[in-house]
Amino acid sequence: MTATTSKTSVKEMPDAISILTADHKKVKKLFKDFEYMKESGSPAEKEELVAEICRELTMHADAEEQIFYPAAREEIEEKNLLDEAEVEHAGVRDLVSQLQSMRPDDDLYDAKVTVMSEYVNHHIEEEQNEIFPKVKKAKLDLERLGEQILEFKNMMSPEYPPPSKPTRSKSVRTRI
Ligand SMILES: [Fe+2]
Ligand SMILES: [Fe+2]
């Protein structure tokens, strides 16, 4: 019999907050890449990067809305924080869908990406500074939620191709 098995056996499974925080980091980096690319990148490069940003944001928002927020809602008092987060997601989804129907040389394309980045950064701050600390204090099984988020992402990723590939002739549309 082992005396100290308890927590170490699940050490490899990242908890929900670590997964979501890693997603935040990733998307922030993608937005930074876009800032560098804005001046010198080709339209095809921009389009590809923006497609990746939109895909990451959509998958992340879906995972939060379908798994993380409902679980948090049951355990934290401040439901308004989750309501506001969902409204912010809707704003981001709207920009995602506008960008998916645009081309990089359209007017306001860069501006929309920049505004989306500011919007997402603000949302991330609120999640990390307000929602996550409250969830950590609550009685949620964050490892189990992390497992569900990873399963969800694995299941969904084939359905989230980049919405518009640099192949000009076909317009590939993805519904979100
Ligand atoms: Fe998030
Ligand atoms: Fe979020």
Largest sheet: none
Overall 3D shape: elongated
What is the CATH class designation?
Mainly Alpha
Task: Name the ligand types.
Answer: fe (ii) ion
Write the element-wise H/E pattern from the N-terminal end onward.
HHHHH
Question: C-alpha Rg, in Å?
Answer: 18 Å
CATH superfamily: nmb1532 protein domain like
In total, how many domains does the architecture comprise? Answer: 1
Number of helices: 5
Mean pLDDT: 86
CATH fold name: Four Helix Bundle (Hemerythrin (Met), subunit A)
Report the end-to-end length measured between terminal Cα atoms. Answer: 50 Å
Stretches with pLDDT under 50, minimum 5 residues: 1-8, 162-176
What CATH architecture do you see? Up-down Bundle
Please describe what this structure looks like.
With 176 residues, the protein is an all-alpha fold. The protein has one domain: Four Helix Bundle (Hemerythrin (Met), subunit A). It has helices at residues 16-40, 43-75, 79-100, 109-137, 142-156. Helix 1 runs antiparallel to helix 2, helix 1 packs antiparallel against helix 4 (109-137) and helix 1 packs across helix 5 (142-156). The longest helix has 33 residues, at 43-75. The chain is elongated and about 50 Å long. The termini are far apart. The relative contact order is 0.18. One fe (ii) ion (FE2) binds at residues 20, 24, 60, 64, 127.
